[in-house]
Amino acid sequence: MTHSMTAYASLNGTRDATSWVWEMRGVNARGLDVRLRLPDGFEVLEPLLRAALKQSVSRGNITVSLRIMQGDDAATLAIDEAQLDRVLQALDQVQERAFSMGVTLGQPTAADVLGHRGVVQHGTSSVDTAGVLDALKADVAPLVADFVAMRASEGAVLETIITGQVDQIAADLDKAVVAAAARRPELQKTLTQNLQRVMDDVTDVDANRIAQELALLAVKQDVTEELDRLAAHVTAARAMLADKSAMGRKLDFLAQEFNREANTLCSKAQNKALTAIGLDLKAVIDQMREQIQNVE
Fold first, then answer.
1. pTM
2. In 183-293, where does DSSP find H-type helix?
3. Distance in Å from the first CA to the final CA of the chain
4. What is the CA radius of gyration of the chain?
5. Where do runs of H (alpha helix) occur along 64-109?
6. Which of 246, 278, 210, 284 shows the shortest CA–CA distance to 4?
7. CB 141: neighbour CB atoms within 10 A?
8. How far apart are CA 289 and CA 228, in angstroms?
9. Residue 235 CB coordination number (10 Å)
10. Percent of the chain residues topping a pLDDT of 70
11. How does strand 18-27 pair with strand 32-37?
12. What pLDDT, in 10s, does the model give residues 4-57?
């Protein structure tokens, strides 16, 4: 099954006076990039989250955030006196250093001091931290499962779209085969006319050299190889879409090869109908590649 790298999942939880909200977001990326935004004191959740995501996801830029909220009975403030002393000593040292260099600094306010990290502790005395942490650990598996389920749902839509685009490429390819066959008399006529002009303008003609040049021109205008490769790419794309493993990188490379052959087809066409089909192929291939960018 095709999975998308774009997905979102959220989960709410409550224990006593503590509530929380999980959010997990994913977008496309070349590899797996997990970014965690966890509150202070909950860093122990990081290895658990990374392990769960690594086991379930192979590619994507994934951001996980956790927001903790305390109820009124837990909304007490406590001062960490040791941290407060360290901050005050540091401020005093800065003031003395500035004075010795002739620099006058404004006096910090109490709010400035309280704003330093670690000086104020929020409701630590009434919160069952161990219980909350156990509940948060239990949230990881269902959160990741919801996230992966949305990736699968989005991937199913992507697979339908890309499959339709591959089918359109195959249909255009059938038209190209017909157009290539129909242009042969026109190419032969052009080659004959060019040969006649050469024969009229040159008295001493090397028949072998002319035969070589005509063969070279015929090869340069032949699109059989490009059409065969495009047909092979269609078969490969369908096989990749049916594969249950992550195929995003391989599909992206294949889309580049699709585009390369379509470009060569247009450059060799020298025929209005075949050129038009080649341009249609390029348009569908470009659209397909945009969708493939989101495939895991």
1. 0.71
2. 184-201, 207-221, 224-242, 248-269, 272-292
3. 10
4. 34
5. 81-100
6. 246
7. 12
8. 20
9. 11
10. 83
11. unpaired
12. 999 999 999 999 889 999 999 999 999 999 999 999 889 999 999 999 999 999
Whole-angstrom CA distances from 289 to 70, 90, 161, 169, 225 are: 47, 57, 11, 12, 23
Residue type, 273: A
Sign of CA dihedral 116, 117, 122, 125: negative
User: In angstroms, what CA-CA distances link 103 with 98, 243, 269?
Assistant: 5, 69, 78
Tell me what pLDDT residue 77 has.
64
Among 148, 149, 162, CA closest to 240? 162
Which strands, in side-by-side order, build the sheet including 7-15?
A: 7-15, 18-27, 60-70, 32-37
H or E segment to which residue 154 belongs: helix 129-182
Count CB atoms within 10 A of the CB of residue 19: 15
Give strand pairing partners of 4: 295
Phi, psi of 193 (to 5 degrees): -65, -45
β 120-122/77-79 pair status: antiparallel
Residue among 292, 283, 263, 256 at smallest CA distance from 172: 283
Quote the DSSP letter at residue 295: B
Hey, which residues does 24 pair with through a beta bridge? 9, 64
Q: Is the dihedral of CA 29, 31, 37, 38 positive or negative?
A: positive
3-class DSSP state of 17: coil
For 25-80, where are the alpha helices, taking DSSP H only? 45-56
Residue with tokens 């255009």: 172
What does the alpha-carbon distance between residue 82 and residue 118 come to, in Å, rounded to a whole number? 10
